[in-house]
Amino acid sequence: MKKRPDPTMRADHPLITTVVALVVVAGLVLLATRSSGEAPQSGGAPAPVEESPPPASGEPHGLTVVDAADVVGVEEAELAYDGGIDVSVTYPVIPNAAPLTDFLERELTDEVHAFEAANPGAASFEAEWNLTAAGDGLLGVRMTRTETDSEGSREGYTTYWYDTATAAHHPSSALVAGQRELEELNGLVRESVGNGDGDGSAANPDTIHPISSLYDSVGFNPDGDLVVEFDAGQVAPAGEGRMYAVIDAEEAEGLLSDLGRHVRDVATVGVEDFAIAAPPEADKDGQDEGGPVPGGPTAVNEDVDCSAPETRCVALTYDDGPGARTPELLDALAEYDARATFFVTGRPVMEHPHTVRRAYAEGHEIANHTLDHSDLAGLGEGGVRHELDVVQALVYRETGHTMNLMRPPYGSTDEGVASVTANMGLAQILWSVDPLDWKDRDASVVHDRVMAGASEGAIILMHDIHGTTIDASRTIIRELDARGYTMVTVSQLLGTTTPGEVYVDGVPDDAPEEGTEPSEDDEPSGTPSDEASEEA
Ligand code: ZN
Question: How large is the average pLDDT for residues 282-308?
Fold first, then answer.
């Protein structure tokens, strides 16, 4: 990992004065615009000055905009980033909010790194900040970033929430009460998402799922309506720009968490001379102390216990995708409440990002199968790291999830791979059943081999880039379900895994083995040379 550099403080730089002055001017213009649109004062008397806070500012389709000049002592830091692209990122430094500054620095560094790692054509990353709430112990920081690569430039948004007393920072999905409420909100967003231009139908509702990486910029407009905004290219073609949904305040009310209601109350009043009186208590470290935040689906189903005597778990795994027909497979899995693990490679993730997002949202496990499907053995640690790092970044950017499993292509691994994967927090997952679906493109043959090999604890290798495998899987899933198997993710089957270690199946070491399953010392039944002739 890159060592995080210290922020370069710009406190003495004339730029800061300029920025604040510009913000003041912008705020006055906004206020003037608002006033001119309101009913004239009775009697023509001038509007009272300094009697009450000004109204919250902002557009109906945007998050409230707080004038930085109304926050006492706010300064700006510039991110120091040591990488191969042009980076210009600023973030706020507010007196007595050091944990927020530290958090933003870490978060932005990770974001820039993921953009650079995921994108071979990455050219530049710029980001600037504004405040969207400041009051009553709460700050909202909205980042607007512009990523530029060989495809052009796209704007994206992330909004963070900070409790000034506890130093807890929250992602935007924490404004929603729970997963059920986020799913309900997702339904409303799918109905109303657009960009206000033309018919607003540019957005594809099917690409919107209740996961935190999509709900990462949520706030309120000055009227208290809930605003959800999406990055350019996230739920519509990139050229359509920012997409958003505005959920009426009354409709949103029942979906909000305590934090959400607090944010709404703060974001709907004007700000005057906001200051944080004291730093957070010394024992606070900025960690979120609340329960799980909505929008982080887990690949482990808490209703299933694979170690229970009556439960027979099996792990279906699909490599080299996603493919064009993977959504059909997801439909079949959903029908039987079955989970699977998808070992994805680089190009397919770039081509089918929405499928990755959907699979993740539906509780399947996403795991790393390298950028180029290279034989990792003998590639050298730098090469192995690159093959894995790119896919880690791609999936992180799509889902917000950091994967902890990988599968070496062809099952080919060595000490160097073990070392790199141990460093990256990735366990190596091989398999115990190989129907050779890449070789025999015959759905009934694939089906028969899987059913013959299936047993408790098995890890079954297939490839969702082959139509015959998709066809076979419909029957396989139905029959495994009928035979009493519970189809789970690899992480659920194995429980806690050790990075760098190689796993072949989920049969407990002390359990009597069924049939002729290999132990971890043996080659998996599909040997590396078998898979070596697979099409990439
Ligand atoms: Zn493969």
Answer: 78
